[in-house]
Give the backbone structure.
Amino acid sequence: MSGIEDTQHLIGIPEWYAGKNIFITGSTGFMGKVLVEKLLRDCPDINCLYLLIRRKKGMEPAQRKEEYFSSEIFDLLRKSNPGQFEKIRIIKGDVLQDNLGISEDDHAELMKNVNVVFHCAANVRFDQPLRQAVEMNTVGTHRALQLAEGIKNLKVFVHVSTSYCHCNEDVLEEHAYPSPHNPIGIIHMIRSLNDGLLEQITPKLLNGLPNTYAYTKALTEGLVQTYDGKLPIIVCRPSIVTAVKSEPLPGWVEGTNGPTGLMIGAARGVIRTMHCNPDYPSDLVPVDTAINALIVAAWDRAQMQTNHIEFMNVCLSHKNLPTWGENLETGKRIFYENPLCFSLWYPDGSIKSNYYHHLFAVLFFHYLPAYLIDMGLVLIGQKPFLVRVQKKVSTGLKVLQYYTTKIWVFKNDKLENLPQKLSPRDRERFDLTVDQINWEKYLHDMIMGVRVYLLKESPETIPQARRILRRLYILDRVIVFAFYGLMFWFLWNYLEVILDSIGGFFNLCLGFTHSV
């Protein structure tokens, strides 16, 4: 972020946040929880965190607060400084409602008190219909920006975007890009057309973008640009956000999107093939690194005496990123040492750079076993399920393969330059190291985090899981040898018949040709 002299950064990050009131959308999401925990723990003198939380599954926001703070991610804070939880103020609302669904009294309080806004709310599902994706990602952001316009003492507005919002660009620079369409026009359109028409025109609107998530994120950045000169905004674009690297809880992860879902599916033996280029870098960024970047970027952006929008790509350098193939081999080795308690089959999948090789593997290693097992379940009076599971897996893999068969260069000069503006204390407290990650240790912690925090399988279950894995391996080998043996027997016994049939067919064709 150019134009800032070091003398303007003499105040440290915790000191700058001291006394500030912060409004956060998307606080119940994966990144949101890590952001809330980090602010409470390492900026202890903040005045108040306003969390926008909606009613969900019959639970009021106040009830969700208790469930929210029971998460393991807050264990360290609970032990070290439990009084910090008193600084939380729940704001009942929803980004899908006008004015964010906030009451008049709460709105007046926010207008008077808020200094910093972190807008993290988003629908990250790739397969969302266009209407829902626009309403959540684009209209929701519009409402947050409209709220920010009325805040009396706003220092900075942080909009969390994604590195893949302009994925038709091979190189993503840290600046604005043209919006795919007029955002306001698209908002009016999705509210005037029925679902059938929207579904028909969606491919034309996407115009090469892989899904509605990428499209609406690009559209949203276009909307944010209309506030250039009006608000002190920074747009942060994380790449693929994965488990905690260092603190507060190494390996902690929530949700099954992206790499986490792939890991679980592969470890359970459900996913046995994936279309992917093993030599391409896996653009992962640990969630604690991403959150540190957001917090520091807000502090840095607030020093600028301008309302010009800034952009920062929150990504690691390719020189330090493992490839998809390296991740697979490391992950398989770690999972074999620490397998899951429940697997449908022996986890022995692989990635295929050739699409047709992948399709062949899907047919023989996904669908064929699924149909055979479901037929067996029907015969014994049980409900079949595996074909249905594999159809969902195939849909998910088709969405993800766009990202695993392409390569991008995400410029990250601003992220790499940020540590130079920090004091030694803040460099340690808000670690932005992007070139010294021990990926072997990180993947081990991530896999153990999936076991413990996501699947609730304690380390004590590993010996039993290893025994189950050995049995699955033996069963897998027996069935594979039996399959190839059956194929050999079939060819040995019927090869002559098959060849005679082929020869007869060709003779018939030749005879027909001569007669004509």
Remarks:
- Residues 462-515 form the longest helix (54 residues).
- The two ends are 79 Å apart (CA to CA).
- Residues 6-252+282-322+408-437 form a domain with the Rossmann fold fold (CATH 3.40.50.720).
- Residues 1-8, 512-516 have pLDDT under 50 and may be disordered.
